[in-house]
Design a protein that fits this description.
By secondary structure, the protein is an alpha+beta fold. The chain has a single domain, classed as Double-stranded beta-helix. The chain is 24% helix and 25% strand. An eight-stranded mixed sheet has the order 1-2-3-14-6-16-5-4, covered by helices on one side. A hairpin with a 5-residue loop joins strand 10 and strand 11. The longest helix is centred in the last third of the chain and has 15 residues. The radius of gyration is 19 Å and the shape is globular.
Length: 294
């Protein structure tokens, strides 16, 4: 996209309102205030934003992301992009060798694959979940490996008023170990569990603009103060409501795509692909979170 920095940013909403594409911004170039305003306003309105045909470096990825605030540091060096502790490698490609990584005997990687392959909200297991994520496609498999995004703000707004009232005072416990428990995997090491203890979030969480979203996903361990079987049934019911087609955007990745999504209102999941033979490498930054309202 070199040479397009002087174009005006153009927002193209998706038909169902579950996101929008922005054209006319080259993220390899310094961002202009007027373009950032268009991007920010579209992000606040639609929750999921798509850029196509980008070609930028990790440093430029970080620079564009930081317009929205400080970035989370990813704690495990083996998962970081080389030289950048604020970029997470979302991939089946080994960082050191460049070969395809197998999860057969790698509990951490298997947990990551199983977790990202189900509907989730990134870092909902934190007291202050990340504000937003920006995911950039570097290598994409020939088939599969798409990502689906479900807008829980739209899903909540479409609920009957009676159901909204029933959910108004419900709290959910989110736990980084929830996925491993459900999949029968060993729990995370004690030092990881210590820095990511279970947290309590309001199910119906308000956003700064006064709208409300549903904080669910596969980090949700249980609903507070009800029996476990009822909790599981209720969480599944809410998930199925949120993933109706009218609330979902299905992204088919191409190299050079970047997708940004609000990390409180958007659940997402990675779709399957041939992990043993096809390469998939994306870089993700995450805008650090702010306190949720409880």
């Amino acid at each position: 996209m070199s040479g397009t920095a002087t174009l005006s940013a153009e927002v193209k909403p998706f038909d169902n309102g579950a996101g929008a594409e922005i054209a006319g911004i080259d993220l390899s170039q310094p961002l202009r205030e007027e373009d950032f305003k268009v991007w920010r306003d579209a992000f606040l309105k639609y929750g999921t934003i798509v850029f196509h045909d980008q070609d930028f470096t990790p440093a430029q990825h970080v620079a564009a992301s930081e317009w929205f605030g400080p970035l989370e540091v990813f704690p495990d060096p083996k998962d970081q992009a080389v030289g950048f502790d604020t970029i997470l490698r979302v991939t089946n490609v080994e960082k050191d060798t460049g070969g395809i990584r197998s999860y057969a005997n790698d509990v951490g990687f298997k947990s990551f694959i199983l977790g990202t392959g189900d509907w989730h909200i990134d870092s909902s297991y934190r007291a202050n979940p990340g504000k937003a994520s920006l995911l950039y496609a570097i290598e994409i498999p020939n088939e599969g490996g798409d990502t689906k995004f479900a807008n829980t703000r739209l899903a909540y707004e479409a609920m009957p008023e009676k159901r909204k009232k029933e959910l108004a005072d419900v709290y959910v416990i989110h736990d980084f170990n929830a996925i491993r428990r459900r999949k029968g995997l060993p729990l995370r090491p004690a030092h990881v569990a210590k820095i990511t203890p279970p947290v309590r979030h309001k199910l119906v969480t308000p956003l700064p603009d006064g709208t409300h979203v549903l904080m669910i996903g596969n980090h949700a361990e249980c609903i507070e103060d009800i029996p476990r079987d009822e909790s599981e049934a209720m969480l599944e019911e809410l998930k199925q409501w949120c993933i109706k087609p009218e609330f979902v955007y299905h992204h088919k990745w191409k190299v050079g795509d970047m997708v940004m999504w609000d990390n409180k209102s958007i659940m997402h999941r990675a779709m399957p692909y041939d992990m043993e033979n096809e390469r998939r490498l994306l870089h993700r930054t995450t805008i650090a979170g702010e306190p949720t309202v409880i």
